[in-house]
Amino acid sequence: MKSWKHLILKTGIVIIILFSSLSSQAQLPKLVFAPQWLPQAQFAGYYVALEKGFYKEAGIDVEIVHPSANKQVTSLLASGKADVISLFLVTGMTLKNQGMDIVNVGQISQHSAILIVTKKSRGISQLSQLNGKKIGIWKSGFDEVPKALIAERKYKVEWIPILSTVNLFMHDGIDAMTVMLYNEYDQIINCGLNENELNVFPASRYGYDVPEDGLYCLKSTYANKKPELKKFLQATLKGWDYAAKNKDYTISVVLKRMQQAHVPANKVHQEWMLNKALELIRPGNKGVKTGELKEADFLEAVNILYSRNRIKPKYTFTDFYQPLK
Question: What's residue 16's pLDDT?
Answer without folding.
Answer: 47
